[in-house]
């Protein structure tokens, strides 16, 4: 049996990423530089054999997955599905506002003076999720346990499916906070991360019901792809 590995890719840079606006369940398309960056990721991954591919059902994740698969020599035989369980967090009434507004409100809810002070402590994703629920005037944000269950089950079901069929690599396009949250669920010593790069790869190994983290925020595939793009010009 081969190793079972999930390659978790953060989607390409979008309009809202560029404008520094909150983007959870709301959605904007990839920008031209965002598409170029993901094309580079696809080139960097083209020698990696994938048994199947998934993305969240958000448009930016679907666009990213298609751009990556477009560069793969076996794109026609890699099954691809969307799964809403690996969506980004829902930020409720904070959706679409400026990042600075949300990260200005949440520290105050958690009794910190600034965003920098919040992230310099051992704040947890559970505390952040509870703060989002508290700040959400629309009552749409997901409670922590709901969020935890859907994210864990989404990624674990993908890994279990692959392991039961002999192992191999799985491509999964998801979102920055969702991927960082999953890393913390695997290893509670992981810090809260809000800075995973667009197009970065976070590799997980799954064996006998357990995940282990192999890489975090790896941009080497994108860098490799950019070199290929430069050579092919």
Which terms would index this structure?
globular, alpha/beta, six-stranded mixed beta sheet, Rossmann fold, single chain, 233 residues
Structural commentary:
- There is one protein chain.
- This protein is an alpha/beta fold and 233 residues long.
- The chain has a single domain (4-88, 146-232), classed as Phosphoglycerate mutase-like (Rossmann fold), CATH 3.40.50.1240.
- 44% of the residues lie in helices and 14% in strands.
- It has helices at residues 15-19, 32-44, 59-70, 99-109, 115-119, 125-135, 144-164, 176-186, 220-232, and strands spanning 4-10, 52-55, 80-82, 168-174, 201-207, 210-213.
- A six-stranded mixed β-sheet has the order 3-2-4-1-5-6, sandwiched between helices.
- The chain starts with a strand and ends with a helix.
SSE arrangement:
Layout: E1 4-10, H1 15-19, H2 32-44, E2 52-55, H3 59-70, E3 80-82, H4 99-109, H5 115-119, H6 125-135, H7 144-164, E4 168-174, H8 176-186, E5 201-207, E6 210-213, H9 220-232
Parallel strand pairs: 1-4, 2-3, 2-4
Antiparallel strand pairs: 1-5, 5-6
């Amino acid at each position: 049996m081969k190793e079972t590995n999930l390659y978790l890719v953060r989607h390409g840079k979008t309009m809202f990423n560029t404008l520094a606006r909150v983007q959870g369940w709301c959605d904007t398309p990839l920008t031209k530089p965002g598409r170029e960056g993901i094309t580079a990721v696809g080139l960097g991954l083209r020698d990696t054999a994938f048994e199947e591919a998934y993305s969240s059902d958000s448009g930016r994740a679907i666009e990213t997955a298609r751009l990556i698969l477009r560069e793969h020599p076996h794109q026609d035989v890699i099954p691809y599905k969307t799964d809403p369980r690996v969506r980004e967090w829902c930020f409720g009434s904070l959706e679409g506002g400026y990042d600075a507004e949300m990260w200005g409100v949440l520290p105050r809810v958690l009794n910190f003076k600034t965003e920098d002070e919040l992230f310099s402590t051992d704040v947890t994703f559970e505390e952040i999720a509870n703060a989002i629920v508290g700040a959400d005037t629309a009552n749409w944000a997901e409670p922590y346990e709901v969020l935890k269950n859907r994210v864990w089950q989404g990624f674990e079901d993908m890994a279990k499916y692959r392991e039961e069929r002999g192992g191999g690599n799985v491509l999964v396009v998801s979102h920055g906070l969702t991927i960082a949250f999953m890393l913390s669920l695997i290893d509670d010593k992981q810090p809260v991360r809000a800075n995973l790069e667009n197009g970065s790869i976070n590799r997980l190994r799954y064996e006998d019901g357990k995940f282990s983290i192999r890489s975090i925020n790896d941009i080497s595939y994108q860098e490799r792809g950019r070199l290929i793009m430069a050579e092919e010009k």
